[in-house]
Write a structure and sequence with these properties.
148 residues, alpha+beta, Alpha-D-Glucose-1,6-Bisphosphate, Chain A, domain 4, seven-stranded antiparallel beta sheet, 3 helices, 7 strands, 27% helix, ORF3
Amino acid sequence: MSHIEESIELDVPVRAAYNQWTQFEDFPHFMDGVERVDQVTDASTHWVTKIAGVEREFDADITEQIPDERIAWTSVSGPKQAGVVTFHHLGADRSKVMLQMEYAPEAFAEAVGDTLGLVRRKTKGDLERFKTFIESRGAETGAWRGEV
């Protein structure tokens, strides 16, 4: 299993960061390679990804969810992965999102990409796009989803 740990500070309240992160259907807006995420039940999601021309579908279960603090998941089909995202209050309009994930590369090309740090860079890029996505939403509306 490979392990990734990345974090990013945001200019939004912790509640806004948590509320946006739990809008799984919005993931394609900031996660590179994510084509679609469907929330099947309160505790399960179905993912469609396309990375380097390879399309994959898998299901993941939410194993822990504490509002404004953390959300954890594990895959139940497809690529083996599990992780947790934690949300940290830094001030009235500042927060930090930390992502920790373990995964098992499935194919030779994925193992090579993992060795070269491609997955870590992709994850860091996803968090940077999340920052842009959520901060621009607040700037456009004057409030963040769930914050009115």
